[in-house]
Design goal:
single chain, alpha+beta, 5-stranded mixed β-sheet, 2 domains, 18% helix, binds copper (II) ion, 11 strands
């Protein structure tokens, strides 16, 4: 192995350590969770809101051309919301503006993310993956009410 190869291998290894450390730091110190794909969960064909308690909601979001179901959701501030997301037809995006929630709705699979809305207000959900002629109208709303 010549000197240039060793240099490139060393730089690639150092970058790998930096990226892995950044991921561990984000999860451990910044409380950023990574989205998860549930391969063992059956995709659903309609949206649903399940209120487990006043502080814990489970929401099954269905993305389809060109809407999200449920289109409107209201939760109290501070509540934990478990988001499950699937698609009924093609790939869709699912981004909750003002949060770190950014998922893909993939047909045949269910993606998951837990989120806590601490600040009251109206959070817009948009599709960020071009999915057809009416993609730009595809949106939904989460209203976080004060306690
Ligand atoms: Cu779209």
């Amino acid at each position: 192995m010549d000197r240039a190869e060793k240099l490139v291998l060393g730089m690639a290894s150092a970058l790998l350590v930096v990226f892995l450390s950044a991921t561990v730091f984000a999860v451990a110190r910044l409380d950023i969770t990574l989205p998860t794909c549930f391969t063992e969960m059956e995709p659903f064909d309609e949206g649903e809101v399940i209120e487990h308690s006043e502080d814990w909601y489970e929401v099954h979001y269905l993305a389809a051309m060109w809407f999200f179901e449920p289109e409107e959701l209201e939760v109290p501030a501070g509540a934990t919301v478990d988001l499950y997301l699937t698609s009924d037809d093609v790939l869709h995006g699912f981004q909750i503006l003002g949060t770190d929630v950014n998922l893909m709705a993939v047909p045949g699979t269910v993606n998951y993310k837990r989120v806590t809305f601490d600040e009251p207000g109206e959070y817009r959900i948009v599709c960020h993956e071009f999915c057809g002629i009416d993609h730009h109208w595809m949106a939904a709303t989460i209203t976080v009410a004060e306690r």
